[in-house]
Amino acid sequence: MKLSKLAMYAATVAAAAGMLAGCTGNALQATPSNPSAAAAVLQNGHMTLTALHGAVHTGAQRHGDWVSPGKKGPLVYIADYGAGVVDFFDFSGGTIGSQQGSISSGISGPQGLCSDKKGDVYVSNTNDSNVLEYKHGSTSLKNTISTSTVYDVGCAVSKKGDLAVTGICSLPSCGAGALLVFKKAKGTPKTYTCGNLYRYFFTAYDKKGNLLVDGEDASGGFSMCYLPAGSSTLENISTSSPAAFPGGVSFDGTNFVVGDQDGADLIQYTISGTTATKVGTVALTGASDVDQGTVAGSSFVGPDAYNAAAEIWNYPAGGSITNSKTGFSEPVGSTVSK
Q: What is the CATH number of the domain that holds 123?
């Protein structure tokens, strides 16, 4: 039986928790200001998954801190929120191949992932309110970026190296969230808010440095905001074609691509002024609850929390799953590093 969003919202409020940006079979995950209280909320979600899928964590992935020596080429990283690890795999040919390593030390509640042009990978380490940076194919921590004012969920890196981080809620009260932008991924961030968003889920830059953020308004409805390159104002964006429940945001080279966790599809948008216009839809047959997916060339990587798998579809064709990796607990985030 799936928990409804409203039921999980109520449980989260009762636990004095801040909500995360996952929708596991329509049941939101939660992370608390009181860890012991949140454990009960999360345990309910895991019990629901266990009842439908058997043991949630099959042990198919090898965890702990390790890396395969001498690996070169592209890697796909998957943040497994349920197992508290970030696993990475060979991504040659746009498919998920053999596991090449895993990071678990210092990881607590990993969700959104992103990477920069150098191949460095950033992990939104939600429960500790920080973003962890690693070199491509390495388990050695390169940098810790504090997001102590918010529970961070998603991230994106511009071509200039600026790091944008979405915060699901502000601390310590877990009120409305915010967008934090760290210039060159360092120092004190600039904080942005906009009226459309109360919970800031996921984000992406386009090639010009414009930034799109999705999430929910104060009533739980899908909303988006837009930060034009060079602007100091995060603008409200309207659309006549909203997603049912916000998922990951990507840029495919032409359009912004927003995942719909409830609709099992991707919505392609162009942005003009303060309006997002739908220009296409990509159906993801077989998807159940894809959280922060990633467009990577002619592939779309979908960490499917409810299916406990990382799945691949052709992009922009969509259709049936072409490749998948199982053995995860609750995969939420993804990025491809080269």
A: 2.120.10.30
